[in-house]
Design brief:
The chain is of the alpha/beta class and 368 residues long. It contains 15 helices and eight strands. It folds into three domains: 185 residues, 3-Layer(aba) Sandwich (Rossmann fold), CATH 3.40.50.300; 79 residues, Helicase, Ruva Protein, domain 3; 72 residues, Arc Repressor Mutant, subunit A (Orthogonal Bundle), CATH 1.10.10.10. A hairpin with a 4-residue loop joins strand 7 and strand 8. The protein is flat, with a radius of gyration of 24 Å. The structure holds adenosine-5'-triphosphate (ATP) and magnesium ion. InterPro entries: P-loop_NTPase.
Length: 368
């Protein structure tokens, strides 16, 4: 057998060849696109630490949307986002309608905002909301929906708040519109605390939990077999175990195992063991070392105090262990939450949010 292409995608922001798990989120949103205005799933927020697959999920859903008669525009919460949404919507609408025309409506003059006969200048007058309204009116005539995806949400961006507020008005008008958002836990919490857009609190929220092993196994198998290779149940189980349900690690493990002997049909036990070692190393150098270097002395002391607990820690216990006031400990907690290193598990309770970081710190401590 000649060496086949490595089908794994250990790169941030890339939709994997096979999505492991996430079935519930995907089917709820696709059903919502099918049923249209009024379905609560049309306003959804994905919340998760780095590498949990937020961007991949948004991109996957955006790609599927067209099959349900929706155009999808995708942005990150950065300055210029609103204009970007408008420009992309216009562009996608033109494409969609002209392909529709070729198939069903040959000869019918579509006109309007994105039709050929429309003067560009007249579509660009008015503020963002009026221009979007005009565009949505046009889409409505063709029964096309508009799905907006916003990645890396940040409440500090005024445009984020403006988008959410205008979106609420569009929803109120019964428009065929959807808003899927994704962000790090502390960014999403800050967004939801904003009084001006409190309606976002009613959006459906999904936490990007670890993917169960059986779903990881299934995705690994499908990915490997699609390229004409095989791995035994035992080997697949070993790869899933090493991934710990963390999407980025699934891709690292898959990719490293694959490239041991890409010319062989069967993936061997040795390929699996070597690949896992290399993937662990990648995880360390690409994610954990970088995170570690960004931490201050105080951050590290806080995290080391967490290691005494088997699982989640009480901030009050940590303060006690460090011999500091609870206010002082809360300061470090806040910093670490903002960096996405830890996450809240209830009032005054925190745990590690970056997979493998606990083990990494234990290793660092042991090696001192
Ligand atoms: N459901 C999944 N199954 C398998 N692999 C996945 C899945 N979702 C994402 N991945 C892979 O995991 C990696 C990280 O995904 P992604 O970039 O979407 O994470 P993210 O949550 O957006 O991270 P960040 O917060 O850093 O932007 C990528 O290599 C991607 O291909
Ligand atoms: Mg991302």
């Amino acid at each position: 057998m000649t060496a086949s292409r490595n089908p794994f995608t250990p790169t941030f922001g890339v939709v994997p060849f096979v999505m492991a798990g996430r079935d519930e989120q995907i089917s709820n949103i696709l059903n919502a696109l099918d049923s249209g205005p009024g379905d609560p799933n049309l306003s959804t927020i994905f919340i998760g630490a780095r590498g949990t697959g937020k961007t991949a999920l948004l991109m996957y859903l955006a790609r599927q949307a067209q099959q349900y008669g929706w155009i999808a525009v995708s942005v990150s919460a950065l300055p210029g986002m609103l204009e970007d949404i408008y420009e992309q919507s216009l562009e996608k609408a033109r494409e969609f309608v002209s392909s529709e025309n070729q198939h069903h409506l040959t000869g019918v003059n579509v006109g309007g905002v994105f039709g050929v006969s429309w003067e560009r200048s007249s579509s660009e007058t008015g503020n963002w909301r009026t221009r979007m309204t005009r565009l949505l009116n046009e889409l409505e005539e063709h029964n096309v929906g508009l799905l907006i995806t916003v990645d890396e949400v940040r409440v500090t961006l005024d445009e984020m708040v403006a988008l959410a507020a205008t979106y609420q008005l569009f929803v109120g008008e019964g428009r065929r519109i959807g808003l899927l958002m994704a962000g790090l836990p502390h960014q999403v919490s800050a967004l939801l605390r904003n009084e001006n857009i409190s309606f976002l609190r009613r959006a459906v929220q999904y936490h990007m939990e670890r993917i169960p092993d059986y779903e990881v196994i299934d995705a690994l198998r499908k990915t490997i077999e699609a390229e004409g290779r095989t791995a035994s149940d035992q080997e697949l189980a070993r790869m899933a175990e090493a991934s710990q349900g963390f999407p980025y690690m699934i891709q690292l493990v898959g990719s490293r195992v694959w490239s041991q002997h890409p010319e062989m049909k069967r993936i061997s036990t040795q390929d699996v063991e070597r690949g896992i070692d290399m993937a662990r190393n990648d995880m360390r150098t690409r994610v954990l070392d970088a995170t570690y270097r960004e931490l201050s002395e105080g951050d590290l002391r806080f995290l080391e105090a967490m290691l005494e607990d088997e699982g989640a820690s009480r901030v009050s216990d940590i303060a006690h262990r460090l011999g500091v006031s609870s206010g002082y400990a809360a300061q470090y907690k806040r910093r670490l939450l903002e960096q996405g290193v830890i996450g809240e598990r209830g009032r005054g309770i925190v745990d590690f949010d970056i997979p493998f970081f606990r083990e990494y710190l234990e290793g660092m401590r042991g090696s001192e």
